[in-house]
């Protein structure tokens, strides 16, 4: 039975045919007519047609349990060759059914379930049965096309064209491809998750490493910049500072292998290496006497600073740090016996400082560093016995320090620098021959340093400067015949300060060397027996220092001078054989030093003077034994000494005080030659 009910005077049109086809499809799919339950009552069926939209799946779902086997079966689409007798079956359809009884269409070929009908088929049927004719399919072809699309798994026009609907249809059509894609997607997701997890683990490990790195960094900085300054000036701190150096170097070597692009860290490393170098062997501060280690540490720092300036060529602060590094490096080289390299360091440091001051002329720190560099250039001249030239450098340095002191009168370090420079000006004047002016200058220096040392009793650097002032003044007073008592008083003050430092800090290398110098100079004012004892003590200390640091060439020079003065005293007491042996030791030590620093004038002069001493010993022995062979040895020694002194004179490095020696030696040579004639 086909429902043809005119709604709102609806005429029979294509829409009516579509509706009829929808009713047929409804019954084909569900085994029921849409409004089968209302067919016995025209009023009810009219109402149902107008108000109800029962989908086929809903009706199938309510079928009796006795037909469950049929209705729950999967839908099987009948092939065209199997429906040849469809017209006959349709003709006999009414004969096989009774009204209001469930019946099924083509049970052997089309199996139905509510699940198989729900979705596209429900919507296709309901669209064909729309109450509003304009919402039905516009033609049978469109109706047929939607059914075809459903069969092929394509989206149908009866359903809203949503993304989820299209996606679902696509997945059903391409299960294998979608499954493969899904597996790939899972693999990608798994890879991303694994990568993120590994990144998180790496980040966690990196964070731990950074924390450890920063801990090491902070610890190294604490050692060097917080702890070390507090103990470096304290008496008895050498052993602790030596241990600190070992620990700090371990940390620094560890840090230097990482973060090469971290400029701030590189700056910290350079400063740290310099601090270690100060403890190892900076001649300007208390140190443990490891001059080779100090040079290595400062070279590491210098290398870092030069690389930093390649990246930041206009960084004035970093330029200033390099200039300061060059100043200390020069002092280390000078004490290590390489005066040529030391002079190169000082000259470069001065050039850098002047370049900075062109852009920042009021920079207090750079001007302080420049004054120190110029002062050290004066030391080079002094050691080359160019005393007038040394005074020029010292005076330039002194004027800068005076200006700085006027700007900061409460800065005791600047005041100390003024007094120290004045001390060395006096020394250069004294070696040039004006002893009276020299000792006056030195006393002016002492008058400033002594009160400062009392105000700052734990400043070992300041105390050592005062000790050197007493020593140098005593050395020059000794040249004045009527000042022996005052000479000894100054030597004794100097010795007492050195011994106090060693008492408090037995491992202090610098204090040991200072004591050697005091013994040597003090011996000049004592009788011969006491002098010999003092020099033997100083040589004993020097041997200890040589064992502690065999690379320290300055100790070699100190030993040469100690042997020279000891030999002179043996000569005074007429122990000619021992004096001769001791002079030879002085020559050997001076020559050993010259291997390291061939331009070292003081060592050249020491060789010449020691050979002159040997010639005198041979003279006295030859007189005692009346032995011509020994006279010949004496003559050869005089000639060799004279030749070396003349070479120094030719180079412009002969001290004025030694010029009369040339005349003396020439006279002795003439006298011996006359004996052989």
What does this structure look like?
There is one protein chain. The chain is mostly helical. The protein is built from 28 helices and no strands. The chain has helices at 14-30, 42-51, 56-61, 68-71, 86-91, 114-117, 120-128, 140-151, 163-173, 175-232, 238-256, 263-281, 291-311, 316-335, 339-359, 364-383, 387-407, 412-431, 435-455, 460-477, 484-504, 509-523, 528-548, 553-572, 576-596, 601-625, 628-650, 659-676. The longest helix is centred in the N-terminal third of the chain and has 58 residues, at 175-232. The chain is rod-shaped. The termini are far apart.
Q: What would you say about this model in short?
A:
The protein is mainly alpha-helical. It has helices at 14-30, 42-51, 56-61, 68-71, 86-91, 114-117, 120-128, 140-151, 163-173, 175-232, 238-256, 263-281, 291-311, 316-335, 339-359, 364-383, 387-407, 412-431, 435-455, 460-477, 484-504, 509-523, 528-548, 553-572, 576-596, 601-625, 628-650, 659-676. Helices cover 74% and strands 0% of the residues.
Count of helical segments? 28
Distance from N terminus to C terminus (CA atoms, Å) equals 169 Å
**Helical coverage, percent range:** over 70%
Order of helices and strands: HHHHHHHHHHHHHHHHHHHHHHHHHHHH
What structural class do you assign from the helix and strand content?
mainly alpha
Write the layout of secondary structure elements.
Blueprint: H1 14-30, H2 42-51, H3 56-61, H4 68-71, H5 86-91, H6 114-117, H7 120-128, H8 140-151, H9 163-173, H10 175-232, H11 238-256, H12 263-281, H13 291-311, H14 316-335, H15 339-359, H16 364-383, H17 387-407, H18 412-431, H19 435-455, H20 460-477, H21 484-504, H22 509-523, H23 528-548, H24 553-572, H25 576-596, H26 601-625, H27 628-650, H28 659-676
